[in-house]
Write a structure and sequence with these properties.
440 residues; two-stranded antiparallel ribbon; 20 helices; binds alpha-fluoro-amidocarboxymethyldethia coenzyme a complex; Citrate_synthase_euk
Length: 440
């Protein structure tokens, strides 16, 4: 079987030709228009970015290289561990996102070994991580850890050595795999420093990327390994316009290397309207339980509805609900719900989440603002982690950050392989828009 690099080497000239042909045949066709509302409203729905690794449909949800989540679960290689033949591995989704092809089990195993070889952190990065205050948010620590590793960038070195632009992809490839490999030990170190007095644990490289990561975190159960595989796969990519992917793409477009580019992505992910929502959801549920436990009242449809209105009336959002593009229940939510039915059907918090799912669309519809009253990915992930005793929810977004690199950096690889330009959309002032519209 071909290795990942061999597969990509064959694909690059074909893809370059395809893009050249697309521009020649259709370069001046119109893909859409931009209204004043869209310009003021954060560019929702404006079609202005090339993104190969995944595509989002408002009703159906995400497809990774054309495959839905259930199709990926059926087709992608899994890790055959003690829990049986369960969820696909992140190595498999990385291969799929980079190449568009379903890898064999042997190809995935080769990629696992390659990632382990690339995972060492420079001493100055571990020293920096160990010196950070435990009170610093884990996402800030995570981002700083990756930033410190930028000294290892092959792309930055190749560029300063004067590499020809047709060869950018080679050092980008090295950086993309290196960053993904290093994120797991950086994330584990942040976790152990913040919650376990800096006591570090070794991984187990006889396992896959996920299980090795779990061992470094201090988690040692086949059930949690399976959850981590599901988690790292489904959070990997959500087309290009979401803030973390877009930030990575934007920073990378300046020929900033993949380390710097993904630090940009992580910092976008750290916002509560984006990746931090998974932490917020757990916080919201804990606040809700604390309130009703203290009052000696049951958590049920009625009390959850009351609590939701309190949140909305306080001018806050319900975390884990709504989406900028989706208009139905997120399939990333649905597959986590199925995981819960399979592995933890009687879990108390899962039942709370499921009751929230029953009432919240009605509450948000009555509230009347949200374009999409249904749950997104973040609404479910925390409760699954919590079930296995992984309860430090301020840390949850770091796991999202380990995963999102897989998609965002696969696209960065293609950005460089296809020679995509600096991103630079046009901005306008209010005055300009007013004058322009009044003249029409
Ligand atoms: N609770 C209360 N109000 C909400 C809401 C929610 N969950 N979702 C949207 N709205 C409000 C929104 O704040 C806006 O109000 P204003 O007109 O007062 O500004 C109005 O409804 C229209 O917003 P929209 O068009 O439906 O959504 P946007 O495209 O502007 O924003 C989200 C999308 C995701 C930022 C928004 O739905 C939200 O804040 N959700 C809660 C936070 C969350 O779960 N984020 C995670 C999203 C996720 F999938 C991810 O990135 N990981």
């Amino acid at each position: 079987d071909a290795t990942l690099k061999e597969t990509l080497t064959v694909q690059i000239p074909q893809k370059q030709e395809e893009l050249k042909q697309l521009k020649a045949d259709h370069g001046s066709k119109v893909l859409g228009e931009v209204t004043v509302d869209q310009c003021i409203g954060g560019g929702r729905g404006v079609r202005c970015m090339l993104w190969e690794t995944s595509l989002l449909d408002a009703a159906e949800g995400i497809r990774f290289r054309g495959y839905t989540i259930p199709e990926c679960q059926e087709l992608l290689p899994t890790f055959k561990g003690p829990a049986g033949d369960g969820e696909p591995t992140p190595e498999a989704i990385l291969w799929l996102l980079l190449t568009g092809e379903i890898p064999t089990k042997e190809q995935c195993d080769g990629l696992t070994a390659e990632l382990f070889e690339r995972s060492a952190l420079p001493a100055h990065a571990t020293q920096l991580l160990d010196s950070l205050p435990k009170t610093m948010h884990p996402m800030t620590q995570f981002s700083l850890g990756l930033q410190a590793c930028q000294t290892e960038s092959n792309f930055a070195k190749a560029y300063s050595d004067g590499v020809h632009k047709t060869k950018y992809w080679e050092s980008t490839y090295e950086d993309v795999l290196d960053v993904i490999a290093k994120l797991a030990p950086i994330a584990a170190r942040v976790y152990r420093n913040t919650y376990f007095n800096g006591e570090q644990l070794k991984g187990d490289t006889s396992l896959d990327y996920s299980a090795n990561f779990c061992r470094m975190l201090g988690m040692d159960s086949p059930g949690f390994d399976e959850l981590m595989r599901l988690y790292l796969v489904i959070h990997s990519d959500h087309e290009g316009g979401n803030a973390s992917a877009h930030a990575t793409h934007l920073v990378g477009s300046t020929l900033s290397d993949p380390y710097n580019a993904y630090v940009g992505g992580l910092n976008a992910l750290a916002g509560p309207l984006h990746g931090l929502a998974n932490q917020e959801v757990l916080g919201w549920i804990q606040d809700l339980k604390a309130k009703f436990d203290a009052e000696g009242r049951e958590v049920n449809e009625k009390t959850i509805t009351e609590f939701a209105w309190e949140t909305l009336n306080a001018g806050k959002v319900i975390p884990g609900f709504g989406h900028a593009v989706l208009r139905k229940t997120d399939p990333r939510y649905t597959c986590q719900r199925e995981f819960a039915f399979k592995h933890l059907p009687d879990d108390e918090l899962f039942k709370v989440v499921d009751t929230i799912y029953k009432v919240m669309p009605g509450v948000l519809t009555e509230h009347g603002k949200t374009a999409n009253p249904y749950p997104n990915v973040d609404s479910h992930s925390g409760v699954l982690l919590w079930h296995y005793g992984f309860t430090q929810y301020e840390y949850y977004t770091v796991l999202f950050g380990v995963s999102r690199a897989i998609g965002a950096l696969s696209q960065v690889f293609w950005d460089r392989a296809l020679g995509l330009p600096l991103e630079r959309p046009k901005s306008l002032t209010t005055g300009f828009i007013k004058d322009f519209c009044e003249k029409q």
